[in-house]
Each structure stands twice: as structure tokens, then as C-alpha cells.
Amino acid sequence: MEYLSYIHFFCFIANVFLTILILARGGKVRATIFGALLFACLALWSGPLVFVHSIHSSRETATFFLNLGSLGGIPVCPIFVAFSLAFCGMSRVLRSKWFLALCIVPTSVLLFMQWRYQAIQVLAGPPMQPFGWPTELTPHSVWVPVNILYSDISCLFAFALIIRYSFTARDAVKRHQARVISWFGIAAFAAAFFLNLLFAIPGGTFPFVMDAAFLVFAIGIAYAMTRYRLFELTPSSAAHKIIETMSDALLIITNDGIISTANPAALKIFESNETDLVGKSVLNFLADNRLVHGWTGSTESFTDVETFISRPGKKQKPLMFSRSTLFDDAGVKQGMVCIFRDISLRKQAEQEKRELETQLHQAQKMEAVGQLAGGIAHDFNNMLSPIIGYTGMLVEKFGAIDPLIERFGHKILDASKSLADLTAKILAYARKGNYEMAVLDVRDIVGDVVSLVERMFDPTIRISVRHLSGRSTVLGDRTQLQNMLLNLALNARDAMPGGGSLTFETTSFVFSEKETKPHSYFVAPGEYLKISVIDTGTGMDESVRAKLFEPFFTTKAKGKGTGLGLASVYGTVKSHCGHIEVNSTPGMGSVFQIVLPISQAAQPVKNARSTGVCKGYGNILVVDDEDLVREMAAEALSNMGYTVNTCRDGQEAIDYFRTHSDRTDLVLLDLIMPKIGGRECFEGLLKINPRIRVVVVSGYSLDNEAKAILASGALGFLQKPFELAALSQTVSTALGTTLPA
């Protein structure tokens, strides 16, 4: 049968060509590599068979080449299985130890037995077919059915994988490839079956041409792996790729609401695997059944409707839902295409935006109320100044003569001072309070407040202090910070009429750039001190907490509170570049947390001020737009021994000073005036006489504008309402001409 040699030679050349072709065009994927290895084994199998069936080969030569061909023929089937697994995307099975053992161990045993039997039989007669395939001179070998069984099981398993994949693959290109391989394989093995029947002549020899059948199968694999790669450019394949890679979940749902197809994004969004999702009712996953109600009859489409996933034991996930109806060519409804977009991040961003807007609106409201309150307090202070001044002069001049004048005068002064304290709280809320900033240790301030409230509070209230680790120095005003903590303590006491516990706690921490994002409206990165005032009182509901820091808001009975305690706390915190938060639940107590930036500077030494009314001499110009304040100051200074002139606004003061600068030793300059304000007036006075002595007076406390004037050369600041002693001390200090009282 010399023609068999030519068939094997053709198969050898064809398999070598296919190996080169698939390596060149198939791409560097695992299936291509195993396909090339499969063709190489087929070539190694077919090449030696040329010499096995040649009439010119001796018995020894034929036996040698038969054994050599077994190196390619026996591993063909396990390599075909490996190719099928790689082609179907079952890489995990391909890498398993069990699969490697099932491929390597039987193949090695069969190769060993092939070579062993042929070595025994090489001297016994003509060369045997593989594993002693029966000839008229050779008995049947048990390894023949073993080889056939192993090969058939391997091939059937590989074919089953490919045929199944031709129906289940999501990729249209892969389905085309699998079908081509399946049809070529069926054709090849059908041809091999009929060849076996045709040439299996009883009593004769069997011409081995299985490599020709495998060549047909190899051509189909090479065709599928090279030709069908071009399908990736088709519109249907492109659409399939889009569905596979899209970030939105896509479900195809039947008329009865059963999920028939789900893309990878759907598995991720619904937190399910394909088995748990496909084949199940969509109503099992969506909380709003109205969106999917009436699958059998409704053809209505939705676009961008919000819903959410609701599954037992899992957090609800918000979704944006759209659906459209699928119709066939006859217009009959086939099902629904539904797209779901996970909008969790968007919802979170919207919630954060709403919170920031709420904070902004609250801050704007508090700022507006603060401006109003500050203006009212300024006017109050202007009116209180003549009341306190004239009353003080009345008591000083006639108190010794008439006891009633002295007693009533002091009553008026006491009431005026109480009202001045009230306006001071309003100014603190408006962040226009009088702050003498210094580096302070908050632990010392807490200690001062605790010492005070321990004497004031009922013994049923237990007071404790916890100082945790970290620095506790801040840049602030000692009096304002003490009042802040005292107001919080008093508020806590009133919330515990039956007793309880009050705790002061301090701790430091660092806000990093990442940690400040939830607090970006009010907190910058850096080191902070947190002061917590914790009580076990009655607590507050949300409606009370929303208005807690507004001035004149109080939950106390009429006449029991002004509603300015927490408002001044808020102003003090803001003036110290800090933030305050309140956590409270009715019946569960309250926690006030104040966050202040920590100062790294050294603590300065404070100078004590003298007290008492000082006499003096010199020419003083009083500039104020309020008639009563201007006249009272002039009268008081005259009584102290000074020569006084007055002006009602800044322009009048500049005009007066231009002609009387040599006879003016000091100017008392109001900060807020019509026409020309205090700062502009001060600059005008400096142009006339750069060495002029000026004391700034204002119904507001020491603010930025007053500080700017002081930085430019003003000698002092006096806040309205002022007592006669404060007025005399400030003037005498500026002039340096103090006389005995």
C-alpha cells in the first residue's frame, strides 16, 4: 500500500502549514497555543507513518518510525482536551493538578507500553500496528482497548465542551468558532468511522489513516481560529462587546418576568452569580414592584426611573431604571430589555451636597442674625454710655450730700452694667466682642470653671474632668473661653433638675487632608483640640437643636433666661476659628463638642491694669456723632481737669484740627460715624500732624478696623459703654499726665 505513504506525507505537510498559520494569525492566546501544539503533534504523528507504510522500509526501520510517531499520536487526545478547555475559557480546570495528572500519567504509561511491546516484537516478525493491532501473525494486545478507551473518552469530553459552548457562549464570535469546530469534528470522525468499517477486512491488515481524519478536524480548528477572528469587526459582535463591557446592568426579561440574560455588570450590581440571577423572577430583586408590574401585557417603556435593590440581609442599593419592549417582525411582544445604573455614589454626593448647603444656609442665617444683633448691641452701647457716664458724675458730685442720690445712682449703674453685660453677649455672638488674644492652656481654664461650678451647683450633680493625651494650648481670650465653658455648664445644670453627671473632657487630634473632606466647609487640615461638655440631662430633639444657637431662643420658662448664653458660646467659638457640634437625644443627655486650632506659640505675660479715676490736664478733642455720648464725655473730661472741644463727625474734626492742631493734645475718635468714618478721619489727622495722639472709641469691641487704626499709631481703645474710671485711665495713659484724684 505505497499510496498510504503519500497520504501520510500530505497530512504531515498540511499539519506543519496549519501550525505555522495559527501561530501567525491566531493571536497570543491560550487556545491558539494549544491549537498549534495539537497540529504539531499531528505532524509528528503523520511524518513517521510515511516510512511505516513504505515498501522500501525494513522491519526494523518501520518499527522505529512507528515508535517515533507514537510521540505525536498518543498525546493528541489529551492535548485536544486542553485546547477545548482553553477555548471554552475554563482556565481554572486547565491549571488544576488533577487535569495535569489525567493527561500526563495515562499518556506516559501508553507511550511506555507502546515502545515495550514493539521492542519485544521487533524480532518476531513484521512490524506491528500501534499496540499490536491485530495482524495475521500477531496476537491481540490488552493495551489496544485501553488506548482506544482513553482516546475516545478524551475526544468525547472535548467535543461535549465545544458543542455546549456553541450554545452558551456570550460572545457571538466564540459561538461561531465553536460551531465550525463542531461540524468539522463530526465530519472528521464520521469519515474515520466509515474508513474503519471499509478497511477492517477480516483476516487482513488495517491501513492506519486516522491522521487523515484528524487533518480534516485540524483544518476546521485552524479555519475557526483564523477566519472567524474577522467577525469581531461586525456590528453584532461590536454590540455584544459593548454589552459585555458596559458598566450598567443589562437584563433581558421574558414576558412572565423571568431573567433570561444578564451581562457581567448585572452580576456585580445585583451582587449575584449567574446561577442565582438568570432564570429567576426580576421581582425577587426590585423593591418597587410597580416598575415591573404587568410584564405579560404592558408595552410601556420607562426612562430614568429611580428604584432600589432590596434583598434580605443586604443594604438597599439605589438604581436608575430604564426598560424597553422587544418585538418580533410581526409586532408581537417578546420580552423586555432593562438597564439598571448603580447611583449609590451619586446619591451619596447629593446627600453630602445637601448637608453642605444646609450648613451654608445655617451659617448665612447665623451671620445675618449676628449682623443684626451686633448693630442692635452697638446702638445699645451708645445709649448706655451717657446713662452710665451721667449717673457716675451725679453720684460722684452729689452722692456724699444726698444718700438717696447715691443709692439710686448705684441702682441705675448696676442695671446699666447688667444691660452692658447683655450687649456684650450679643456682641460675642456677632463675633464683635472684646478679645485679648493670648496663648492659653485650656486645661487651666477648665480647672477654673470646674472650681467655680463645684461651689455653685447642687451636690446631686457629679462633676468630673478627663484630660486625654495631646497638647492643650490655643490662641484665645481667657475671659471669653471661661464664659463659654461656664455657659455650657449652666445649660447642662438646667437640663439636670434631678441631678446627674457633668463631664469636661479635652483631647487633641490631627485632621488630615482626607479626614477634612466631610468637614470641608469649616475645618482646615491641622492639629486641633476638642473640648467636650457631657451631661446626662433631659436632652433635646431635632427642632430644639436646629435653633439652639440663635439669640433670644430659649426653652426655659419666661423670666428664667435671656436666650443669649449659647448664642454667645457660638460667637466665641467662631471668633476663635473653631467649630461646635451638638449630639443629643431626648432623655439621653447632650454632648457639646468644641474644636479649636492648637497654637504652637509660647505663652505671653499679661500686664495688670490700674483702677480708679485719674485727674489730668491737656486739650482733648472728642469726635462722636451721638450727641449724648459726645456731651457726656466732654462733661466728664472737664470734671477731670481737661480742656475739651467736640466735633460731630469726621469731616468737622479734620477741619477743626487743621487750624487747632497745635492746641490739641489728644483726640477721642468714634469709629462708626456718617460722612467720614473713624479710620478715614484718623488718616486725615495724621496727614496734618503725624505725631497726633488718638484713642479709638466704639460701640463695637476691638474689631479688625480698630486693630488697623491701632497698628497705624493710635494709642488706645475704649469700648462703649465705659465707666468714668476706664475713661480717665485710658486718657491719662495716652497723655502720660496723670494727677492725684
Task: Based on the model shown, name its key terms.
16% strand; 5-stranded antiparallel sheet; 741 residues; 5 domains; Beta-Lactamase; alpha/beta; 5-stranded mixed sheet; single chain; 23 helices
SSE layout and pairings?
Layout: H1 2-25, H2 30-52, H3 59-73, H4 76-87, H5 91-94, H6 97-121, H7 143-168, H8 172-199, H9 210-227, H10 235-245, E1 249-254, E2 259-262, H11 264-269, H12 274-277, E3 302-309, E4 317-327, E5 333-342, H13 344-398, H14 403-429, E6 438-441, H15 442-456, E7 461-467, E8 473-476, H16 478-494, E9 500-511, E10 526-535, H17 542-546, H18 565-575, E11 579-584, E12 590-597, E13 615-616, E14 619-623, H19 627-639, E15 643-647, H20 650-660, E16 666-670, H21 678-688, E17 694-698, H22 704-711, E18 716-719, H23 724-735, E19 738-739
Helix pairs in contact: 1-2, 1-9, 2-3, 2-4, 2-9, 3-6, 4-7, 7-8, 8-9, 13-14, 13-19, 14-18, 15-16, 16-18, 20-21
Spans where pLDDT lies below 50 across 5 or more residues: 120-139, 200-207, 230-234, 517-521, 604-610
Say what the CATH topology of the largest domain is. Answer: Rhopdopsin 7-helix transmembrane proteins
Number of strands: 19
What's the number of structural domains? 5
- Give the fraction of residues assigned to helices: 40-55%
CATH architecture of the largest domain: Up-down Bundle
The value of Rg in angstroms is: 49 Å
User: In CATH, what is the homologous superfamily of the largest domain?
Assistant: Rhodopsin 7-helix transmembrane proteins
Report the principal-axis shape. rod-shaped
CATH class type of the largest domain: Mainly Alpha
Give the strand order, joined by hyphens, for the main sheet.
2-1-5-4-3
* Estimated structural class: alpha/beta
Q: How many angstroms does the end-to-end distance come to?
A: 145 Å
Number of helices, counting only DSSP H or I runs of 4 residues or more:
23
The average pLDDT is 76
Please report which band the strand proportion falls in: under 5%, 5-15%, 15-25%, 25-35%, 35-45% or over 45%. Answer: 15-25%
Characterize the largest beta sheet: strand count, sense, and whether it forms a barrel.
5 strands, antiparallel
